[in-house]
Amino acid sequence: MEPHPASDPLTASRLGPSVAARAAARRGLYVHVPFCAVRCSYCDFSSGALSAAAVERYLAAMALETARRAPDARGAVFTSVFFGGGTPSALSARHFTRLAALVRGAFAIADDAEITLEANPESVRAPLLEAWATAGVNRLSMGAQSFDAEELEGLGRIHDAARPGEAFALARAHGFRRLSLDLMFGFPGNDGGRLARTLDRALALDPEHLSAYCYIPEPGTPLGDRVLRRDVALPSTDAQADEYAMLTARLEAAGFAGYETSNFARAGAEARHNLVYWLRRDHMALGPSAHGLWNGVRFGNHYAFERWAASLEADASCDATEIESARSRADEIVMLGLRLGCGLDASDHPATRWADVLRRYGAAFEQGLALGRLEPARDGVRIPRAHRFVADDTIAWLMAAADRPSRGPLGDVVRGRTDLTPARSAP
């Protein structure tokens, strides 16, 4: 089911991310903090109980990993750093200061880098805000998920509906000018009315950036297992699509551009670090479960904190690696780039890599354009706005089409043409 188009569609000039934002997203550094005060009922990220002993072991293992990774990044300057988790804001000011110093001591961070920290609203306090600012953090991403008390309880959140507003006010008072808010929809008990009220509360906080994710039940999580056992039901796909359409229309009316399927920003407030991922640029990663891409090699650290730390302590491998191929690179460029509002743009990629994309996907792009699954973009293709909620379906269709000979709009057999020249339109 496709969401109904909003009555005031985005003009091409508002599709993001901007050229300037994409140019600024050059190299990223991700730092995973695997601790939470309480694990949410929907979460399958690598996180565990917080204790002084566990944090000390984590910092010691991080020192070992930064020493191991730093030589590969010699000469590289990072334009974004992202402290994610888990809950980075669960660390004490003293422990976070040590972690930030480890990172800065091992890697070159640009003076104007975007440095983001994920924070849960209940943990935002004045001493932590001061420590974060001193360490160079200039962007906070706060997880609220909902402003409905019953929904918060069902999701396992430990803050009340008022706490995100209080945390925002504290952050503003301490000089933070780039604040992002995470919301969720489409989970059991959620409906359009509740989402609309949550959006009212979220917009009243005047964030620069907002992420809104449609819930996916993950096996092994309390809420996910209840959904998969059918103890509780998700809203219908039609209802989820209508929620997404309403959310998109409301945010656009408030001045936010939907620059990625689940992400919305005011002008100039796109998440630089996430653009590094979506544009498939090099990113280093540290900590359990962290994944990176560096000089043509993908790596994923061991998921469990114990295994990751023990491997580093034993001077053994803490990750699994995979050397990319022309095909895997092309698949990732398409899969990630088509989630952007502007879609795939040849200027975002070196000419040789774009040639690999066209070699594999040129015929599939032509078919997608003919069938209305794609539309021309400035220097490539994008998913039409009305299809954004089901973007993954279009991407899966393109990958399947690229794997088989298929017929073009006039019945001719198209076999891996590389001469596709996308029509140009206004950015």
UniProtKB/TrEMBL annotation:
<keyword id="KW-0143">Chaperone</keyword>
<dbReference type="GO" id="GO:0046872">
    <property type="term" value="F:metal ion binding"/>
</dbReference>
<dbReference type="InterPro" id="IPR007197">
    <property type="entry name" value="rSAM"/>
</dbReference>
<keyword id="KW-0479">Metal-binding</keyword>
<dbReference type="InterPro" id="IPR034505">
    <property type="entry name" value="Coproporphyrinogen-III_oxidase"/>
</dbReference>
<dbReference type="GO" id="GO:0006779">
    <property type="term" value="P:porphyrin-containing compound biosynthetic process"/>
</dbReference>
<feature type="domain" description="Radical SAM core">
    <location>
        <begin position="21"/>
        <end position="257"/>
    </location>
</feature>
<dbReference type="Pfam" id="PF04055">
    <property type="entry name" value="Radical_SAM"/>
</dbReference>
<keyword id="KW-0411">Iron-sulfur</keyword>
<protein>
    <recommendedName>
        <fullName>Heme chaperone HemW</fullName>
    </recommendedName>
</protein>
<dbReference type="InterPro" id="IPR006638">
    <property type="entry name" value="Elp3/MiaA/NifB-like_rSAM"/>
</dbReference>
<comment type="function">
    <text>Probably acts as a heme chaperone, transferring heme to an unknown acceptor. Binds one molecule of heme per monomer, possibly covalently. Binds 1 [4Fe-4S] cluster. The cluster is coordinated with 3 cysteines and an exchangeable S-adenosyl-L-methionine.</text>
</comment>
<keyword id="KW-0963">Cytoplasm</keyword>
<keyword id="KW-0349">Heme</keyword>
<dbReference type="InterPro" id="IPR058240">
    <property type="entry name" value="rSAM_sf"/>
</dbReference>
<keyword id="KW-0949">S-adenosyl-L-methionine</keyword>
<keyword id="KW-0004">4Fe-4S</keyword>
<dbReference type="GO" id="GO:0005737">
    <property type="term" value="C:cytoplasm"/>
</dbReference>
<comment type="similarity">
    <text>Belongs to the anaerobic coproporphyrinogen-III oxidase family. HemW subfamily.</text>
</comment>
<dbReference type="InterPro" id="IPR004559">
    <property type="entry name" value="HemW-like"/>
</dbReference>
<feature type="region of interest" description="Disordered">
    <location>
        <begin position="407"/>
        <end position="427"/>
    </location>
</feature>
<dbReference type="GO" id="GO:0051539">
    <property type="term" value="F:4 iron, 4 sulfur cluster binding"/>
</dbReference>
<dbReference type="InterPro" id="IPR013785">
    <property type="entry name" value="Aldolase_TIM"/>
</dbReference>
<dbReference type="GO" id="GO:0004109">
    <property type="term" value="F:coproporphyrinogen oxidase activity"/>
</dbReference>
<keyword id="KW-0408">Iron</keyword>
